[in-house]
């Protein structure tokens, strides 16, 4: 069955995204039907599942170099919300920031990436922009994300 699905949808990421959104919406409806209150405080976790998927690789050295460049230019800060994480010890501050790729590999395929293709985001904004991209058709720029998230920065 996996091969049949791959043959049908492997080269059609937009159909996969559409099906995924429909499945998630259906699951939310089923969950809402099953739960009559929010008082459920436990769940079974730790089950094992296996996935077969295509993964595009990113170069981790590029992140390190990008962070070093940003530090040389001044304090690290999120390009969406302006967070500087100054309350966090400097030796751990890097872990608060993530490098966001402005050109999704799903659209470009294998490509050369430079610093101009990257943005520095705090972990919260990085997660939020990827959530927005899953919910919206097409790619979302930083300015679109800022508008959608009603950020002033």
Description:
The chain has 153 residues and is mainly α. It has two domains: 2-34; 60-148. Strands 1-2 form a two-stranded antiparallel ribbon. It has helices at residues 2-9, 13-34, 60-73, 90-93, 105-108, 123-135, 142-148, and strands at residues 97-101, 118-122. The model has no long low-confidence stretch (mean pLDDT 84).
Instruction: Please describe the biggest sheet, giving its number of strands, its sense, and whether it closes into a barrel.
Output: 2 strands, antiparallel
Summarize the helix and strand pattern as letters.
Answer: HHHHEHEHH
- Structural class assignment: mainly alpha
| Spatial strand sequence of the major β-sheet | 1-2
- How big a fraction of the residues is strand? 5-15%
Quantity of strands, as a count: 2
**How many helical stretches?**
7
The termini sit apart by 48 Å
Count of the domains:
2
Gross morphology is globular
Q: Percent of residues in helical segments?
A: 40-55%
List keywords for this structure.
153 residues; mainly alpha; globular; 7 helices
Task: Write a brief structural summary.
By secondary structure, this protein is mainly alpha-helical. The chain has helices at residues 2-9, 13-34, 60-73, 90-93, 105-108, 123-135, 142-148; strands at 97-101, 118-122.
Write the layout of secondary structure elements.
Layout: H1 2-9, H2 13-34, H3 60-73, H4 90-93, E1 97-101, H5 105-108, E2 118-122, H6 123-135, H7 142-148
Antiparallel strand pairs: 1-2
